[in-house]
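Protein data:
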Amino acid sequence: MLHRMRIGVVGAGGVGGLLAGLLSRAGEDVALVARGAALEAIRARGLSVKSTLGVFDTRVDAGDTTATLAPVDVALVAVKTWQVAEVAKTLGPWLRPGGFVVPLENGVDAPDECAAAVGAERVVGGLCHMLSWIASPGMIEHVGGPPSVTLGAWHSPLGKRIEPLLGALEKAGVKTRVAEDYPAALWEKFLFIASFGGVGAVTRATAEELRGIPETRRMLAAAFAEVRCVAVARGVTLAPDVVDKTLAYVDALPAGATASLQRDVVAGRPSEIASLSGAVVRIAGELGVPAPIHGAIFASLLPLEHAARRKAAERQRGAAASAT
């Protein structure tokens, strides 16, 4: 007798919270790893979602670690990029036999970080597109078009194991796609999010401003082009018109759209800058490819990043002292 698929989601932020909520509403068995105020709110009143797909509350099985939750068939990883390597260490014991991990991260490092922890054969490449964020602890807001998730092979064939997950996501209202060339799809997303997030964080501009001011639009296009050059130098096949297509995507975004990187920087929270423009600079340096725009973005945001991380560490020390 086949058991019911259980879907784990690690991270209750804009991506993880939205997917967990939509999947739960659709009747799927969802296990959500959350922390702090978010976990308290979800346990008290359920997970709340305000989306173009509906406004609703739903109950999910929530815990603060994978060890406190029953095993899962699929683990969707939706934490901040700097948390992936540590989280990945907890995923192997959480998976049922035959289970697999799908990283839904910004950047290009997460698939290999997960593979190093659980084995390449247990990692399916993933990426997502959605405009969603934490409105308040346990409450996710989503705007724009339907969320989408792309899956693809990463050092191991997909086989039929992904079919139940694809069906569950589609049933929940999430558009799905299987990429024939997953590395290309991953870098296309990276090209967009590293540049849109980085330029937005430096300028504090919305999508409408980024695309509407000629000088800033040229800066954004040049940042896209830098990432394309790095990808090609790394052996990734990207379409010659990927920059134009990505600009067209920006032109179609809601006027007030911003990236999570920009929202974190503005709020004084630790951000993913090291995994975005920082990764562009790192990989470009390894390949001997120039990346001056992303280098300037990274250097400009580092002082704010260091300050945000110092404050976060101070808050953690204060919380630990209060607990004792």
About this structure: The CA atoms of residues 74 and 165 lie 8 Å apart. Residues 292-323 form the longest helix (32 residues). The chain has two domains: 6-180, 185-311. The mean pLDDT is 95.
